[in-house]
Design a protein that fits this description.
This protein is mainly beta. The protein has two helices and 24 strands.
Length: about 325
């Protein structure tokens, strides 16, 4: 058997593994669901066109509670201490006024019963701020610039954190750029000191997963660990591999440490934008929580616009070469 034929058969088999074994449950409706974060205290937040939503558990049921903002769109979200940090994107095409907002979860307005929302930093000269990633030492945040019509990059904003305040420090607009393998970054996530990036290269009409290595928070080198003719969104290093949201094909992709690729069924998760492991009591063990945006600029139809979940069995994990014991 030719090597190329063998690779195709392996790909088909791995695709079948996820397609036949992944189940899906709807958690709740969420218009243009985009990203999510679980805080150190276990609170689960989502970004959407309706604001920032927290999934709570009351009287045995899950319920969404919203934090309203004046943002046209909300993209990446991270947490540090008592604060949430989120991308507040401006819909204007000419000179948009993007910014990072901070939400103080400890400062609750007694009238609205909502936390205080304010601007952390104005994001100028960025086409479309997308994913966010907090450094392992929580002393800076990275912002992905998703620029399909020019050169994208990843910016770095240093953070000054005290017991009662979160403030912006030094800003580096092009901290990582094409010299570091970045074309148009979307999802970004730190894991064990390395940065994983989902990146789109317009010249090849393909997305890539790039692993960027650092020493003492400074760039060392990078490598491409996966590439496909699709549009990839957020990602999550997990189980000695990387789990990726394939937005265009509406499916999950897992690349294990040996480079083997497994895919779920096409359009099982329409417009999938992010994934994370759920936590008790909202979700049982080994449950993935998935945001489905659906069609761009469509907050109304039943295509996406929801949070969903998928229970991952130990058999599936074994078959795709995922080691989640660590």
């Amino acid at each position: 058997m030719k090597n190329s034929t063998f690779k195709i058969l392996v790909s088909v088999c791995l695709t079948f593994v996820l397609s036949g074994c992944l189940t899906k449950q709807k958690v709740d409706n969420l218009a243009e669901a985009e990203n999510q974060i679980i805080t150190a205290e276990g609170r689960h937040f989502f970004t959407s066109s309706s604001g920032i939503a927290e999934l709570t558990y009351e009287y045995g049921k899950r319920k969404l509670k919203y934090i309203k903002t004046d943002c046209d769109a909300l993209n990446g979200i991270e947490s540090i201490g008592q604060w949430l940090i989120a991308v507040c994107a401006d819909s204007k095409l000419i000179k948009p006024k993007h910014r990072l907002i901070k939400i103080d979860l400890s400062n609750i307005d007694i009238t609205t019963n909502r936390p205080h929302v304010s601007t952390l930093f104005e994001l100028t000269d960025i086409a479309l701020p997308n994913g966010l990633a907090i450094s392992p030492n929580q002393d800076f945040i990275l912002i992905a610039n998703y620029n399909l019509f020019g050169r994208g990059f990843i910016s770095r904003l240093h953070l000054n954190v005290t017991d009662n305040e979160l403030a912006a420090g030094e800003f580096e607009l092009k901290f990582l750029n094409h010299n570091h393998g970045i074309a148009s970054a979307n999802g970004i996530r730190f894991s064990q000191g390395d940065l994983y990036v989902s990146d789109f290269k317009a010249s090849k009409l393909a997305s890539r997963i790039i692993k960027v290595r650092f020493i003492a928070d400074e760039y060392l080198n990078h490598e491409t660990i996966f590439s496909a003719a699709t549009i990839l969104d957020d990602l999550m290093p997990t189980c000695e591999g990387v789990l990726v949201a394939d937005y265009l094909m509406g499916r999950l992709i897992f690349i294990n440490k040996h480079g083997k690729v497994s895919r779920s069924k096409i359009q099982q998760f329409p417009g999938i934008t992010s994934i994370t492991w759920g936590q008790y009591p909202l979700f049982s063990d080994n449950t993935l929580v998935i945001t489905e945006r659906g069609i761009l600029n469509d907050p109304y139809t039943l295509i996406g616009n929801q949070i969903s979940s998928s229970k991952i069995t130990n058999r599936v994990l074994r078959n795709i070469g995922a080691n989640c014991s660590g």
